[in-house]
Amino acid sequence: MEMELSVKQSALKISELQSRVDEYEQLIEAIKSGEVDAFAIKTNNQSEIFTLRSADYAYKMLVENFGEGALNLSKEALIIYTNNYFTDLLNLPYENVIGNSFSQFIHPESKKTFNKLLKKGLKTKAKGEINLLIANKTIPVYISLTSLFPSIPMIGVIITDLTEKKKEEEILKIKNAELEKLNSELEAFAYITSHDLQGPLRKIQVFISLLIEKERNNLSKNGKDYLMRVEDTANRMQILIKDLLAYSQTNTTELKFEYTDLNQVIDEVKDDLKEELNDKHATFETTELYKVKIIPFQFSQLMHNLIGNALKFSNPLQPPHIIIKSEIANGITFSNVTLSPQKKYCHISVSDNGIGFESEYNEKIFEIFYRHHGVTEYNGTGIGLAIVKKIVDNHGGIITANSKLNQGTTFDIYIPATFED
User: Fold this and answer.
1) What is the CATH number of the domain that holds 98?
2) Which domain holds residue 210?
3) Which of 123, 298, 325, 330 is buried most, with the most CB atoms less than 10 Å from its CB?
């Protein structure tokens, strides 16, 4: 008996559900045919009324208050609909825009581009930059066209005003040109000044050497001390001039790229620093180093400076151990967010076990003339790492430093990986 009742109840529920489905199907057909413009849906014992006219009104209000120009064009580019934003952009009344050809508001130089976009927009989506021309005023815009065929025989158009963006780009362009000019003047000044200073400095050094050689015994203890200080200062000045010249030449010399084996670059630098490496009992560890397109003499200078730093700032309690690695992979592989994810880079790392420095100085050390250690502790001019940074810039790359006090330093270099055909 109970089973018969359960079956009857289930059959009744199925019948009710089928009835509702039939009602919804009839409602959908009525909406499609235009027989109704409103319908009610019962939710949580309450009825909600939805009107197609109110929905259309809400959509219209959204488009009217849209922060960009919105238009509907015929396939001949006649303006069938436009919102207020576009008429305000043209500074024309609605009646002077609606029904007119969109082409009449386009700058003559942009008409060919627009016609191509319109032709494409009749079939699919099209977008690009064009200029409008109203009362001799040019308005740069970004235009996006979307075909509404076959549902509606029109093309939907969105217009974005680029006036402010173009102004900002022009200001940035001017500022960059000014900065480039200042940099060129600064580099020229550094080169000329450094070059002109070398002659007088050499004479000073020659006379100091003569005084030490011929008059040393005639000098008092203080006199000898003063003379040695003058000699030390002159030598430091010579190093500074040499570094200034190197820094100025990183941009003034011709940037000639060549496919170069990084192993060869490292071997040449190790040979140049042979005495210093032996004196410090330094050891090297290298993994596979790639052949990449670089400016050979600049990259040699870069490695010379980094390895030289590893020797200079080595831990007095242990011999320097320098590790050089390289790998080639997409930017997304590395933990540097400034790299293009899908672009291939050659990543070169130079690590040491030296005295290191506090991590808050990881960026500051690349500033020209910045010295983390006093001149009495370590010789230097504060230009070496600025040269390294500039060379990496010349290669379209990025360099970062990671260091901890008394735990060594790692320099990570990322340059675009260009392969030989």
Assistant:
1) 3.30.450.20
2) 164-253
3) 298
DSSP states along 354-374: S----GGGTTGGGSTT--SS-
3-state DSSP call for residue 317?
coil
Q: How many domains does the chain have?
A: 3
Q: Is 175 helix (H, G, I), strand (E, B) or coil?
A: helix
Q: What is the CATH number of the domain that holds 349?
A: 3.30.565.10
358-395: per-residue pLDDT in tens?
888 888 988 888 776 655 566 767 888 998 999 999 99
Among residues 161, 176, 191, the one where a domain terminates is: 161
DSSP 252-280: HS----EEEEHHHHHHHHHHHTHHHHHHH
Q: What is the mean pLDDT of residues 61-78?
A: 82
The residue among 115 and 8 whose pLDDT is bigger is 115
pLDDT in tens, 16-55: 656 555 554 554 455 445 454 544 444 455 544 444 444 4
Does the predicted model carry a pTM greater than 0.90?
A: no
Q: Which residue type, as a one-letter code, is found at position 197?
A: L
- The secondary structure element, H or E, covering residue 142 is strand 137-147
> Per-residue confidence at 118, pLDDT binned at 50, 70, 90?
very high
Band (419; pLDDT cuts 50, 70, 90): low
Q: How far apart are CA 378 and CA 360, in angstroms?
A: 20
* Eight-class DSSP state of 104: G
156 and 82 belong to one structural domain: yes
Of the candidates 59, 78, 64, the residue with the CA atom closest to the CA atom of residue 153: 78
How far is 379 from 381, CA to CA, in rounded Å?
7
| Residue of 332 and 11 predicted with greater confidence | 332
* Contacts by 295-300, CB closer than 8 A, 24 or more apart: 295/255, 295/256, 295/257, 295/258, 295/391, 295/394, 295/395, 296/258, 296/260, 296/265, 298/250, 298/255, 298/391, 298/394, 298/395, 299/260, 299/265, 299/391, 299/395, 300/265, 300/268, 300/269
68 plus 134 within the same structural domain: yes
Q: What's the gap between Cα 115 and its chain centre?
A: 34
* Whole-number Å distance between alpha carbons of 277 and 304: 12
Q: How many CB atoms lie within 10 A of CB 383?
A: 21
- Tell me what pLDDT residue 13 has: 56
